[in-house]
## 1
Amino acid sequence: KKIKEMVECSNHARDIGVVSDDRQIRHYAGALGAKKVLVEDFLRMINSSPTEQTQTFKLDQRQADQINRELAEIWLNK
């Protein structure tokens, strides 16, 4: 439910990547424009060399820091 809410409440769903094996969550996220990927595919991607990685979840340091701050606020109620 939390994942669906996060994608639904976002003003930039196309900038969100949802990693899940749950077909319903992936379908819902995709319908809202978010990128979606299976856990196995995501793990394969992050464990590959940088030249093998796709652009799907490629982030610069600023974007990664922003995501970490937002997740801390959501999950840790900061």
## 2
Amino acid sequence: MKKKVLISILILIFYAPFVYGEILCGLACCLDTSISQTNKDSFQNLPASAGGIYEGCGFTTVTAGPGDCGASAHMWSCKINSAPSGLFTGNATYHADCQATPPDCYKNATASTEFSIYIDAVPPQVSVNFPSQNSIVPVEENMIGEASDDMQLTSVKVNSGLVEEFLPSDGCTKYLNRSDLKKREWTIPLSKVAWGANPQTFTIRSYDCFYASPPLLYSFTVDSYSPIITIDEPSTYTNAWTDPDNPIIKGYASDDVGIDKMWLIIKDETADRCWNGSAWQAGSAIVSINAPSGTSSAWEYTGLTK
């Protein structure tokens, strides 16, 4: 006789709920939420960005502002397209979808952080204080000006050549927002930058860590040489006039810029007297003559009588 055996099968079903593909808070993943900024107090130009990391469990959202903000894969970021120069601040908040209840899950399901970055939104400016625009200045002088910026200056250049450097190349963050770097005087000898035909036009720009000022075109005449003058009549070799009855004094004059004024001193060494333009007089006298036009020309004086 066959015996009947009753067999009982116990099937255990473990239920693991999912929401949006992420495990809800349970004993294995219950953690305090946290959020932080990874580029705090960084120095940027526009468009600038702030961002960081967030930690927690469950489905999450991050809200932040101002700016165009978003979050994904435990990283959040905000893009700032428009802002004045200076310290820019905002706030980012992380919301964890933790559905378990204490004591299975920690109570902190929300975390916030204030984010901050420095923004440089405006290019620097540059000006020339000396010499005046369209003036004439000797090459021994210096060109002097001022540069300014709302955050910090790095350098000034004239004709693409470095004039002055105000901070080290790695100083953008180290020397951030210092008042002594927002306005500086600069100077450069004209002998270092002046060459070519007159009048000369100089291109001057100032720089900060991100921008260059609009090019300033500044023009003036640089007088690089002293004028040169010769006396060709009477001849110094023969010590005589070509026509003694018609004593004309003449010669040649030149200058890189142009001749403005000319004078003659005609002295009778024997009688210790000078010609004043119409007669001889005791002591000194100066005769003015017409300066030749242009940068080089012949000149003459016909007012001397025999």
## 3
Amino acid sequence: MGFFTLLANHIRCTVCLSVGLGGLYLGVLAAEGQTVILHEIAWMGTADSPQEQWIELYNASDEYVSLADWTLMTASGSISNRLSGRLAPGQIYLLGPHQQRELAGIPVNSYLSGHLSPEGEELRLYNRAGRLVDRVNAWHAGCNESYATMQRVYPYTAGSHPDSWTQSTVRYDSGYGTPGFRHPPAYTEQELNQVFHGENTINVFFNQSALTEFAFPNNLANHRINLEERIIDRIRQARRGIDLALYEINLPAVVDALMERAAEGLPIRLLIDAKPEQDADRNERYRLMRVYLERMLRGLDGQLGTGDSIHIFANSPIFAVADPDYRAAFGLPRHPSDIPYKTLHIGNGQQSGHLLVEGAERAPNHYYGPGGQMHNKFILIDDYRVMTGSMNITETGIYGTYRNRMARVP
């Protein structure tokens, strides 16, 4: 009850209404976020010189962002740049080779202070408050033979996720890349027509296209919106904590974003729905969700009960997946031997296994069965912003199909 009391007593926020493929989605947002990302990296240099490395930042938000006192640096210390200037929505910030005012005829905004190792670097972008805004932990794409850059294809997925990057196929004077320009996106362009800022305002988003000719004057819909991007954007902006009450979750990018924030020390709590045995498709989705739950419980360090673990509770007990090959495919230990093995009274029967998530007790040592579904979809950010509605945080709930998700089409 404490979690739902928290939701009821702390919603002082703006509301966003969105329609997903899984149904209606209601999200509460106080203001559209400021999101500057690492956009393109020429870690291999150019055909003129491997030393002519360059990096692009991109303002993926719908607001102006001041870069005054922001810092771009590598974990190794090979680069440390203090940034300046102001980025308009959709604008590129280009850091070029030292003392080189132009790159392929494009003026640079700043010079790189050093050089990137072609073997790989951890590149970090900090805002003026010293908060990590984006990072890359390896060269996930690019080619030092054809001088093809590493380009971002999915702006709200973590920069450390390999699927966030691809190798450029656009030719320019000194290799393959798009210095100073936003490369052709692999996801549908969003149509933002009305976004309200401040408290007590309502924003409505649709993930499919809308017929704006039927709208009232000055009331065009926000449509073609990738709702997963919106969720990840809010997770990345959280300052004090995140609380979630979800029927289901299986989007790897959302899970990765939550785990990265938990590793930074942000308190995260998840209330999730346990599932009864159903048809093969639903059972497979539940197995997938359970490995993601275990990943969140283990955190980035892979250990249960440490500082980067996400706190998870369910309406009914949830047991760990036992299949060793399936577990290994998701980076989990082949055997959940560090998770207590228990036999519990659940509903009208007993169930045994490695107890992954505690459930609600109806009497001492007797738990409610999973049949009474907890079908909520609440995400509470900083006790201030809420996203809620009828769209599940799943592949089918947002995209409909795996092919749609991989094509980045909302």
## 4
Amino acid sequence: QYSPALNNLACIYCDQLGDLDKAYTLAQRARQLAPNDPASADTLGWILFKRGDYTSALNLLVQSAGGLPNNPEVQFHLGLAYYMLGNDDSARQQLLNASSLNGPFPERAECQKYLDIINVDPASADSATRTKLEQRISEQPGDTIAFARLAAIYQRNNDTPKAMALCQTALKANPKNVQAMIILAQLSESQDPQRAFDLAKSAYQLAPNDPNVCATLGHLAYVTGSDQWAFTLLNEASQDQSTNGETLFDLANAAFCLGKVSDAQSDMQNAVQTGLNPTQVAQARNFLDMITICENPGQAVANQSRIQSVLATQPDDAAALFAEGLLDTQNNDAVGAERAYEDLTSKHPNCVMACKNLAILYAQNLADPAKAYPIAMKAREAFPDDPQVARSLAMILFQQGDYNRAADLFTTISNTPNADARVFYCLGICEYHLKNYMETKTSLEHALTLDLSGPEAADARQTLSEIH
């Protein structure tokens, strides 16, 4: 029975006395006494709005607006909640609704000011509009929509310093301004990719379901080498109906690094069809050409000049670096191939196809087992049934003296049709170190029957003589 009085008192503390803490306590009590009262929902929601808790305010104001559909002030409050959360369309609809209602509405002129800001088109805004927005930000640095419109104008004019300063101002006023974080992340990428990545991660924590946030974080995750996370985020962002070509472009690159070559090709083709800027169109065509070579390694030599021309303009392109590794392998340049794959894995440590080919190369000329081991393990995880990867990892473990694990792999390989003399030799030596002498004898004798030669043949005979 005291709820209306408490509600009115909360309004006085909020709007006249400016004591939001006292107002909040009173409004909470009023809400507890009348949980279904739209007026108490509006009061508590409006106090939360003034405290900057726009998400919590929105939930209450939606309830109050539904219960008081003909009250322009209540509709106005809901419109402002949408506004401060950057929801342009809902804010416009709600503010138009408020301004169209009859009855006392002291905020009618203010409502129109917000509508004027929402209706600014950054693509065609003139200097006078920009000046008005700058004035608005100087007065209300936390104005989300004014910030977004002004930032877009600065970006249209390629005025990066002003855009970055504007983002900093917006974040100082509201540290949870997701749009400011994302724009600042995008602007910071060329100068400091890691800082850009961190900003995008902060935005994602606040708005994990926002497609633009997912796309931006996915792009920066790819740039900084977190390919699996990049793929997950970009794939999620691509499900949105408003997906642009840039998101699909990034998704294609992330998919390639995860070994999803067919998906990468399809995503890049879709990116071109959806729309890219001229520079990205050229890069997309290069990517698709490199994909063709990656799927047909025998064509690498015939396309040597094409691979080299792409790398001249895009030295960090993952598909082109992989194609270069294939080219060097075809030309019997193991050192060059290793260098190409190492360049690729330095930028994308989990590029599984590069890890696979690099592990095979390392195992063929094993100079540094400690360096080769983590690459081979990544390849084994990605390609658990690949016999070349299994053999490479077994050889690396053998050289490291990890005879137990190496023996397990060599035993599996020895049961395949392509098992050669060296496999049985290594298996026999592993068994010898594990003191399994019967297995040692069987494996080494079989290796010799397969024409094992050189120092390994001599070592096999010496080992056999020691166990007889």
